[in-house]
Amino acid sequence: MFQVLSSAWALLLGMCLLMVGNGMQGTLLGIRGEIEGFSTLEMSIVMSAYFVGFLGGSRMAPGMIRRVGHVRVFAALASLISAVMILYPTFAEVWAWTLGRVLIGFCFSAVYVTAESWLNNAATNENRGQALSLYMIVQTAGIVVSQALLLTADPSGYVLFVIPSVLVSIAITPILLSISPTPAFETTKPMSLKELAGFSPLGCVGMFLLGGIFSAQFGMASVYGAQAGLSVAQISTFVAMFFVGSVLLQYPIGWISDRMDRRLLILIVAAIGVGGSVLGMMLGQFFTLLLVSAFVVGGMSNPLYSLLIAHTNDFLEHEDMAAASGGLIFINGLGAIAGPLITGSLMDAVGPWGFYMFTGILFVAIVIYAAYRATVRSAIPVEDTGAYVAVAPSYTSVAMEYAQEYAIEADKEDENTQNSR
């Protein structure tokens, strides 16, 4: 791990600062939207716009990097992110915020692609897993820290918009000055969605539904908090608990997944997610229980993402895993675009608890479909399944291919160990 830190500390520090900026602007807009008098539907459109831009950026970023290089893409898009964050309070209009969110989603996606290819270049076969874990921890830590920074100023003013803008500007400095040489850039062409669905229907359906759950957490949690009458401190703590749960429960669930039928584990984890959603829906007026529900929902949804990828890989040859990851990311992105729009409609119809109604319904759908698939396809023996690798929903195709390489290497090591016995 020290080897990874010594070779990629500037990149990891820069990514942490970028995630602080991204986490702040996401939560802050939900709070400020309530102050500006935006309706829940209007805020759902604003929040959905980020995922439209993110999906578009993940498709276009590779071509941009090949044309002008990593350095120019990273610097230009990070500068644009910084500018948009400053403009939010200047143009407090739904159309302006929606356009800003599309731009920021696009830019962050391309920045992630650039940073992840640099990280991949800095890692070796021996420390690949450690680098991937550090990258996930840094991303999550940045979002959690960002929620604490929301308490430093009045959300009705300008200061909280200036802070993430400055952090993003600072983030690019250590990366551009310390990272060398610039890595070569290659990505695998994604597998067609039809082929992917043939290999793993549960993987495809589950990833689409999870996209809605993730976008509700990242986009609408602060809107829920504002509607429910929570203070800024309570909203920031509430949002942070989703990400705390995702980190703390990712690895225990991953350990279990290598020792039992993954399809059954997917069902169990999703069922626990239903319980967390019901808890928030029924007893969310008690703040402590609201935090517990956020911890459970975040702690179940993020490992589900990794579980569905691992389950899909169990039906693929090693050479197809990287291609399949691109398709799974695209499917997840489609679900993420729809998530805030549906959540906002439910919250308009039934009140703030429509937020948890939405996540609960999607978790129930995963439970039902996983149970159905168990009746039409036999389970793969545990000893024949591949390695579980913890991945995050914010990963682009570059980090996903990176994770797949690590999974393949882990599988080969297991095979060599078994053959040597």
What's a concise summary of this model?
The chain has 421 residues and is an all-alpha fold. 81% of the residues lie in helices and 0% in strands. It contains 14 helices and no strands.
Instruction: Output the structural class.
Output: mainly alpha
The proportion of residues forming helix, as a percent range, comes to over 70%
Query: Which residue ranges are poorly predicted, with pLDDT under 50 across at least 5 consecutive positions?
Result: none
Number of helices: 14
* Rg for CA atoms: 20 Å
The amount of beta strand, in percent, is under 5%
Order of H and E elements: HHHHHHHHHHHHHH
Gap between N and C termini, in Å? 29 Å
- Based on DSSP secondary structure assignment, what is the total number of beta strands? 0
Biggest beta sheet attributes: none
What would your notes on this structure say?
With 421 residues, this protein is mainly α. It has 14 helices and no strands. It is globular and about 55 Å long. The two termini are 29 Å apart. The model has no long low-confidence stretch (mean pLDDT 85).
Question: Layout of SSEs?
Answer:
Layout: H1 2-36, H2 40-68, H3 70-87, H4 94-122, H5 128-149, H6 159-178, H7 193-199, H8 201-227, H9 232-257, H10 262-283, H11 287-313, H12 318-350, H13 354-376, H14 397-420
Helix pairs in contact: 1-4, 1-5, 1-6, 1-8, 2-3, 2-4, 2-8, 2-12, 3-4, 3-6, 4-14, 5-9, 7-8, 8-9, 8-11, 8-12, 8-13, 9-11, 10-11, 10-13, 12-13, 12-14
Properties at a glance:
421 residues; mainly alpha; 14 helices
